[in-house]
Amino acid sequence: MSEFLLQSDIEEIATALGDKAQAFAGKTVMLTGGRGFLGRYFTEVFVRLNATVLDKPCKVICLDNLITAGDEGAKITEVENITFREHDVIQPLDWEDDLDFIIHAAGIASPYYYRKYPLETLEVAITGTRNMLELAQRHNARISFFSSSEIYGDPDAAHVPTSESFRGNVAAQGPRACYDESKRVGETLCYIFHENHGLATNTIRPFNVFGPGMQETDYRVMPNFANRIKGGRPLNVYGSGNQTRTFCYITDAMNGFLRVIAAGVPGEAYNIGNPKPEITMLDLVQGMEKASGGKLDYNVIEYPDSYPADEPLRRCPDITKARRQIGYEPSVDLNDGLKRFLGWADTVYTGEA
Ligand SMILES: NC(=O)c1ccc[n+]([C@@H]2O[C@H](COP(=O)([O-])OP(=O)(O)OC[C@H]3O[C@@H](n4cnc5c(N)ncnc54)[C@H](O)[C@@H]3O)[C@@H](O)[C@H]2O)c1
After folding, report:
1. Where residue 228 falls among pLDDT bands split at 50, 70, 90?
2. CA distance 60 to 81
3. Mean predicted confidence (pLDDT) in 17-39
4. Does 191 qualify as catalytic in the annotation?
5. Which atom number of ligand 1 is nearest to the Cα of residue 67?
6. Domain membership flag for residue 289
7. What pTM value is reported for the model?
8. Which pLDDT band, with edges at 50, 70 and 90, does 3 fall under?
9. What are the pLDDT digits (tens) for 127-183?
10. Is residue 83 part of a domain?
């Protein structure tokens, strides 16, 4: 068990999954990006399910090339039924043993890192996804690909909240294109393998997940603000501060992800996020003030060179499909999620990133 994550959150995820968890009993799961933010949650949840509810344990093989896994990701402790292999998914993988599920969560997810590694970002979502689809086909395994809400680009007001049928308004050239466009191609690959080869593929489109376990050097807005709060420094709001997002606490997101992986309708894409509230980055500063119980100074500044401008103006999921098809319902409100996250960050972050 990792001391880095809140064990009460892991228990909450395992409990919320209910009898859907039995889909993993006695099965083998390959988890790519297994040492990243979401990957470490998956690992801990499977450890918990094995210890508590599954009649037969689920075996998990974590793959990660550690490119952005950071110090925490690099601390590998193998426990019974959970193994780790350092592997770059851009390279094919020889795997002859059993395989029932692939969770393809490897990716370069933070805008700071995809600005730094644009080609690696593109390759993991395209070549890496193709390699995982071919592996799934050889074993007739179910495969879930982690795409992103970023595939919608900048939706017009009529398409916010955004449903899965919105086709996107995305730039093929620009600082974010390596991420957005490669995730779109990854989705197209899933579509081809489902349509032409009958493979049970699902695409997951997460909308800004946050929670304990995010690395301080991740530079997405939540760890960035939390780091500066810890260091007693003013928060830096990029651009106008009027761009909106919705934020989904990790326990809700993991519940949605695992429901898709276990029981999503083959071939379908699912938005997983929390549609309420849709807030501006300036509202988020206020939300953090409320959750941390203290006044916070902030500056509204230009995008730094290390962070890609051209951000979508609005981002809010329509989760009707996930509600109806897999019984997904987020339940942690923003204030509660922020309190849990900031409380954790206060004990773990240095305030110096
Ligand atoms: N967390 C979110 O809010 C969010 C939102 C949208 C999409 N996603 C997607 O979900 C997935 C997981 O996100 P996360 O927040 O855990 O990201 P993360 O950056 O914390 O973890 C991703 C992991 O993938 C690994 N990786 C990258 N390239 C690899 C390669 N070629 N081979 C093997 N491993 C590789 C990294 O080392 C890292 O450990 C990503 O694909 C991301 O794009 C996440």
Report:
1. very high
2. 6
3. 97
4. no
5. 37
6. no
7. 0.97
8. low
9. 999 999 999 999 999 999 999 999 999 999 999 999 999 999 999 999 999 999 999
10. yes
Pocket of ligand 1 (CB under 6 A): 32-33, 35-39, 63-69, 73, 88-90, 105-110, 124, 128, 146, 148, 206, 208-209
- Total domains in the chain come to 1
Tokens 């919608």 belong to: 152
Q: What number of other Cβ atoms are within 10 A of residue 240's Cβ?
A: 12
CA distance to 25, 251, 329, per residue, from 320 (Å): 29, 19, 10
Q: Which of 40, 68, 114, 184 to mutate to test the pocket of ligand 1 (most atoms within 8 A of CB)?
A: 68
Higher confidence at residue 217 or residue 254? 254
Which CATH number does the domain housing residue 188 bear? 3.40.50.720
Is 163 among the domain residues? yes
DSSP state of 11: H
Give the residue whose CA is nearest to atom 37 of ligand 1: 66
Q: Which domain holds residue 169?
A: 7-213+249-273+316-332
Active-site hit among 41, 179, 219, 349: 179
Q: pLDDT tens for residues 83-133?
A: 999 999 999 999 999 999 999 999 999 999 999 999 999 999 999 999 999
- Residue 209 within a domain: yes
Give the residue ranges of DSSP H helices in 280-327: 281-292, 320-326
